[in-house]
Structures are given as C-alpha cells and as structure tokens.
Aldo/keto reductase
Amino acid sequence: IKVPSLALNNGIAMPQLGFGVWQVEDDQAFTVVGQALEAGYRSIDTAAIYGNEAGTGRALAASGIARDELFVTTKLWNSEQGYDSTLRGFDASLTKLGLDHVDLYLIHWPLPSKDLYVDTYKAVEKIYADGRAKAIGVSNFLPAHLERLLGETSVVPAVNQIELHPQFQQAESRAFHARHHIVTEAWSPLGQGRGLLEDPTIARLAAQHGKTPAQVVLRWHLQIGNVVIPKSVTPSRIAENIDVFDFTLDDADLATLAGLDSGNRLGPDPATFDMA
Ligand code: NAD
C-alpha cells in the first residue's frame, strides 16, 4: 500500500498517514515498527518521553529500507525545554534513534506556565539550520502560542500535532493552521480506541462502505486534510489502519461525521498542562 504525501511549508513531503508508538515498550517497538514498515507505513511518530526511540531506530535499521524513503518524527520532552537543554535533548534522541537526522522535530508541549517555548523553538531552529531536522514544528500548541512563535521567531512551524478525532474536531486550530500554512497532524486519531469506534453513526457508515469504524475515522482525517498517526500493536489492525485508500466518504458522510463533535478532550489541556 502506497500512502500519499502532503507538501509541508518548506517543500518537504510528509506521508499523510504514519504509525504512532506511544505506550509501546522499547522491545515491542522494535517488533511493531517492523510490522508497520512491512505493511507499508514509512512514517513513524515517536518521542523522547515514549522511551522507545532505540527500539524504533533498531527496527528502521533492520528493515533495510532506504533512509530517504522513511519519515521519522520525534519530540523534545518538557523537562528539556530551554535553549541549551533542547540541543542536548535532540542529540540524545538522535543517538537513540541511530540516525544523523530526523525528518520532523517537534516541541512536545508548550508549557505556557514555564514560558520557555520561544527559547526552545530558537534551539529547534538551530537544529533545522544545521540540517539535522528536515522540518520542524510543535505539538499541543494553541493558536495563542503559535501567534507568539510567529511574532518572535523566523521559521514558521511546518506542523502542529494536536489531539483531534471526530469527537474533538478542533475547528479553531485547524482554521488557524490553514491560514498560516501549518499542517494539522492528529494525535489519538481513533479517540484512543475508547468509545469513538463503537459510535453507532460511525458503525453505520462503516457498514455502508464495507470498511471498519477505524477505517472510516481515518478516511475522514485524510479527506479533511490532516496527517494521521494511528497506533496499534495488533498486526491485523496495523494492516487495517493503512488500508484506507480504496474508498471515499461523500459530502453527506462528511457532514454526518462533522456532527459528532462534542468538544471534549481525552488528553490534557495545553493551556495548563505542565508535567515535567
Ligand atoms: P489512537 O487514537 O491511535 O488509538 C490507539 C488505540 O486504538 C489502540 O491502542 C487500540 O486500542 C485501538 N485501535 C487501534 N487500531 C484499531 C482498529 N483498527 N480497530 C479497533 N481498535 C483499534 O491513540 P494514540 O496512541 O493515543 O494516538 C496515536 C499516536 O499519536 C500515538 O501513538 C503517538 O504517536 C501520538 N500521540 C501524541 C501525543 C502528543 O502529545 N503529541 C499524545 C498522544 C498520542
């Protein structure tokens, strides 16, 4: 299966569907990243805090897939915010991954109470200028945080990775990103598999299209322009989640799904989350 790419604001191509590895142990990451690559995924989303950059890196190496066909994202953890500590945090991630560059480097959370994200981003810009990240961006940034970066730094973030699924559609952030040529990347795209996939409306659409609820939800993300990074450790679901390029939701289906937004987050609120 071949996944289409989106062009980021600096021209770098990012696969629109990738594989997320949150809550996967390092050894298991070696196994499931290998399975994902086998199934056709080429984009992998990890983070320093996930503790599985080493296993992920070993799977990438073992796959034998050319580096320029892979798209590797990792993220700076909160405890490393600040200019010098960001440079050190990045070095540590690169070493664990066994790579000489990543494709996308993100600041994991804004931590507005610490007020370090501008300095942190300036270090990320340095990493970008040195060619050690092909694209840079942020995660969990609210429009107000992005406004500050746009005003006080030089490189417009290529991506903002945020919680987004049919029950939490993030209309305001998506519109802001579109205005500034920032790609919206959806985390917990399947609503963490809790509840969303049992929704009767989604089940009805799935039956109509002869696909599964997870496939309908992923198709929705792709058609509204999101990058999507579903996670699974089950081989059949890893394959199922990439098998979403042989059907199309029509306007009525999209309107039906638009109606499922409840405005309720599953994860923390970026305005207040300050875990280090
Ligand atoms: P997800 O929405 O991808 O859901 C994953 C869960 O859904 C699985 O554990 C499984 O229980 C279930 N599932 C997966 N495929 C299924 C299928 N085909 N049928 C039925 N159930 C299925 O949740 P996630 O892992 O939270 O998010 C995906 C990725 O997003 C993460 O792995 C991580 O890479 C990223 N993420 C980033 C942040 C951030 O702060 N930047 C936060 C959370 C997640």
